[in-house]
Amino acid sequence: MTTQTRLKLSVIIPVYNNPEGLEETLESVINQDFPNSEYEIIVVDNCSQDDTWETAQRYQKIYPQLIKIFQEKSIQSAYAARNKGIQMSSGDVLAFIDADMTAESNWLKDGLKDMEKRKSDYIFFRIENYSKDRKEKLISKYTRMKEFPQEDYFTKLKFGTVGSLFVRREIFDTFGCFNRNLISGGDREFGNRLYEQGIKIDFNSRITLHHPTRKTFKSVIQKSFRVGRGVAQLQKFYPERYGSLVKGLLEQEKRIFILPSQMAHIFRQWDKLSVREKISFSILCFITKVTGYMGQLWEKYF
After folding, report:
1. What is the DSSP letter of 72?
2. Rounded (5°) CA angle 267-271-274
3. What is 3-215's CATH number, 3.90.550.10, 3.40.190.10, 2.60.120.200, 3.40.50.2300?
4. CA distances to 40, 75, 79, 247 from 182, in Å
5. Does residue 74 surpass a pLDDT of 70?
6. Which of 3, 72, 89, 190 is deepest in the core (most CB within 10 A)?
7. What is the tens place of the pLDDT at every residue in 120-139?
8. Is a pLDDT exceeding 60 seen at residue 252?
């Protein structure tokens, strides 16, 4: 497809076993303040074993000109699913959002406008966690205050969370796609790869996407373990950039105990927490650190 006939935007949504989350995401992306004729929505199901694919089919039948659906069956990896979406897309700019996230109606219009104004090739946006429960529970509050520190990712780590990312097609054509073999950390690797090649990393904190908080201790532990495995994979595949796995494990051990003075940096609105919540969050933070350490060991030895 030539540049003249391309759409302005392709929205890519990877999904795995989450029909309800996919439905919420699609509703928000369908109802954008942006002409339907100028963008497409690409859903890539990644080996779901529930009603996710049927949900995608149902929406595709209702919006056949707007929504395209594909399956990525070769590997269980959100990055592989995103790569499939990149391959099947037609837009000049590729917008990424995860199934279970929702976008405000100005996301595409204002995101593209800001991208053009900055002459940006890579830009990401603020993610706000929210609780679906009427009365917020401890785990939900913990993840709401801790996850998606986009400003830190921007200033310190030079990457943006892939669930809030706009990238020009030429960037993928020139520098390649996401590493499909990573279980976690592929967005960091991709952003760092571009930054090393002189591509400017941009962040817009005024445009917001929304992500539901985690509700269970199990889900927090599973994420920490997965992230730990991803750290080990980054060190294994890119030792020149992320250091050796052995060195990384030793550094992780040194950082496993977090000083009270550091908590205000880790958790937004830390000073507003009760003493009980501060103690609980500190314990949870220690447990997740240990779990991440175990994930690194698992990736190394198993």
Report:
1. -
2. 100
3. 3.90.550.10
4. 27, 11, 7, 20
5. yes
6. 190
7. 999 999 999 999 888 999 99
8. no
